[in-house]
Write a structure and sequence with these properties.
mainly beta; two-stranded parallel ribbon; 2 domains; Pectin_lyas_fold; Pectate Lyase C-like; DUF3737; Pectin_lyase_fold/virulence
């Protein structure tokens, strides 16, 4: 296991293909794809400042980490990722990824996030942005608070508990959606 503590990385793909690493208190500055194709990575108290941080990655655990606004299109084509107690400020996070577990995560700009993803768990997630969860499947949400139109358009197999959505046109073109003890405020549901 490789350990990176209190480091600063910049430039293109500084830890490309990194495997079996623990990364703590580290900032990834300007430079695309810092952890592309990484495997078995634990991130804690770190910051991503630029584009495409975790593409084609597997078995990732992220805690107390910030994805800044320019870390857009941050997590694509990734399998088995858990993010907890973290802030995602960038849009278009999570595309074509699977086995996603988010707990105590705040998306300040969730626009076009969680697209075409499968097997998603959302636990105490706050998000603001349009087109959240489009064409994704097998979603379980508990205490999701979402503000944004066109939420879960084309989604399949959605189960939601204790959640609040302020969303026009939520669940359009969706299939097999079950909502429990939740509030949906907006025009044209389903």
């Amino acid at each position: 296991m490789v350990n990176y503590n209190n480091q600063f990385f910049h430039g293109e793909r500084p830890l490309f293909g990194q495997e079996h690493a623990t990364i703590v208190g580290t900032t990834f500055g300007k430079g695309e794809s810092p952890l592309e194709e990484s495997r078995h990575i634990k991130l804690n108290q770190s910051i991503f400042q630029y584009k495409y941080p975790l593409w084609y990655s597997q078995h990732i655990a992220v805690t107390n980490t910030i994805f800044e606004a320019m870390a857009r299109s941050g997590i694509w084509y990734t399998v088995d990722i858990a993010v907890s107690d973290s802030e995602i400020q960038a849009p278009k996070t999570f595309r074509r990824s699977q086995d996603i577990r988010l707990k105590n995560v705040h998306f300040s700009d969730a626009s076009e996030s969680l697209w075409n993803c499968d097997h998603i768990s959302l636990d105490h997630v706050q998000a603001s942005g349009n087109y959240f969860g489009m064409n994704s499947s097998n979603i379980v949400a508990d205490h999701l608070n979402l503000i944004g139109d066109y939420a879960f358009d084309g989604a399949k197999n959605v189960e939601m508990h204790h959640s609040t959505l302020v969303a026009k046109d939520a669940f359009w073109n969706s299939e097999n959606v079950t909502i429990y003890d939740s509030t949906i405020n907006g025009n044209y549901l389903g």
